[in-house]
Design goal:
Shape: globular
Structural class: mainly beta
Low-confidence stretches: none
Strand order of the largest sheet: 1-2-3-4
Number of strands: 16
Length: 234
């Protein structure tokens, strides 16, 4: 009779803090799942969900939000680099064939872009506003809107593999918990810890409209998610 020694470890599942689908322009649809310990799981969403790989979280890092980006159109500055329409079309095809980009951020106030092949950080920048609670890329896939603890929305330029701070919107007296772009990229909608939904003009960085949600008891309603339909309905 053979005796085998086995060791078992207690598996402690980590809470899911964020789920984000890759843009529809990506050939292979992906879903990124962010765990409370900072790990990011990449799942294939072609047909049934199939687990592919895990990006290990940064030591002492934090993950509260995820955002994908996949630029498929040349910017106005890029168009001026080419002399003929054929060159522009060729450059556009090369741009569309690139792999999507994945960003994460959390309470450590750092925005990280991940290398999906090597499973390591590719770039990292400060949020310039403390903890990051939400992020969203515009529909042109050229800018990243970031909602921070200090009540600002900050825009980052992500064209041509960049991750560069652009500017911030007017400040509110509450943390920004959720953010979404309108389909024409002319406005941004945010939800905040003071129970309000705000509409912002992306050109001026100023608030264009505000709606306060009803309270449940004495505390304001936390607006953890917002979205904008193609019709403009929030």
């Amino acid at each position: 009779m053979q005796v085998h020694r086995c060791r078992f470890t207690d598996f402690v599942p980590q809470a899911i803090n964020a789920i984000e689908y890759a843009p529809a322009t990506v050939r292979r649809p992906y879903v990124a799942v962010g765990r409370a310990n900072g790990d990011i799981e990449i799942w294939s969403a072609k047909g049934n969900l199939v687990y592919e790989k895990t990006i290990p979280g940064v030591v002492n890092g934090s993950l509260e939000t995820l955002a994908w980006a996949h630029q498929t159109k040349l910017t106005k500055d890029d168009l001026e680099l080419f002399d003929t329409e054929k060159e522009r079309e060729k450059a556009t095809r090369r741009l569309a064939e690139r792999a999507p980009r994945l960003f994460s951020a959390g309470l450590n106030a750092v925005i990280v872009e991940w290398d999906l092949a090597k499973l390591v950080p590719k770039a990292a920048v400060d949020s310039y506003g403390g903890a990051v609670w939400c992020m969203s890329t515009n529909h042109a896939q050229t800018q990243l809107a970031v909602g921070t603890e200090d009540g600002h929305i900050r825009l980052f330029d992500i064209t041509d593999d960049k991750l560069v701070y652009l500017r911030c919107f007017d400040k509110i007296k509450a943390r920004i918990l959720s953010v979404a772009w309108s389909h024409d990229d002319q406005t941004i909608v945010t939800g905040s810890a003071d129970g309000a939904v705000r509409v912002w003009n992306t050109d001026t960085g100023r608030m264009a409209a505000r709606m306060t949600l009803p309270r449940e008891g004495r505390d304001p309603t936390l607006v953890w998610a917002v979205t904008v339909l193609p019709s403009g309905t929030i």
